Amino acid sequence: MSEPRGSIANDPMVMDVWKRLTKLFAVWRLIVIAGFPRRVLKQYSNDQTTTLMRSGHWKIALGLLGGLSDAQIEFLAVWARLNAERSERIFRATALVMVFIPVAAVFGLSELDPEIWDRFGFERIDLLLTVLGTWMFLCAIMMAAAWRARDLSDLLELEQGRRALKRAKAGIQRP
């Protein structure tokens, strides 16, 4: 795999694994899987990691990581953490803007012209619910993307811990 033109060069093998991981942790998969009752009921447990370890996409992902060196895993863990933090910041900023601007506009325009909403047709509840539903849907997609980015970071942190435990059991000191 070659890096896109103008990109900072990274280990091609690591970036290939990253692309495969991001496909496994796709946002649409979270949306489809999230509604299954058994999985939802486990959300009320104090043990969230056992559920993950039974998850098919985590098993496949851990298998993908098996062929990488410790240094490559370290790099991917940093990459995933940075990605998760950026995704979270983007979600928070966008959600704030998507709420703040419309609310400020509603109050501001209402103060300037109290009849404006009647002229725009917002006396109709169905139109209002459509607009609100669209905003909520867009925020939910961004929240799911941030959630998945965090899942990837968690996966790599788990793999780092698994490798450290394996080294400790074997009596191997890290250089």
Topology:
Elements: H1 12-24, H2 27-33, H3 37-42, H4 48-54, H5 56-65, H6 70-112, H7 116-120, H8 125-170
Briefly characterize the structure.
The chain is built from 8 helices and no strands. It is mainly alpha-helical.
Radius of gyration: 22 Å
* Averaged pLDDT: 81
What is the subunit arrangement here? Answer: single chain
Can you tell me the residue ranges where pLDDT is under 50 for at least 5 consecutive residues? none
H/E element order: HHHHHHHH
Q: What is the overall shape?
A: elongated
> What's the β-strand tally?
0
Distance between the termini: 30 Å
Largest sheet: none
Share of helix, binned:
over 70%
* Proportion of residues in β-strands: under 5%
Indicate the structural class: mainly alpha
- In DSSP terms (H or I, runs of 4 or more residues), the helix count works out at 8
Give an account of the 3D structure.
With 175 residues, the chain is mainly alpha-helical. The protein is elongated, with a radius of gyration of 22 Å.
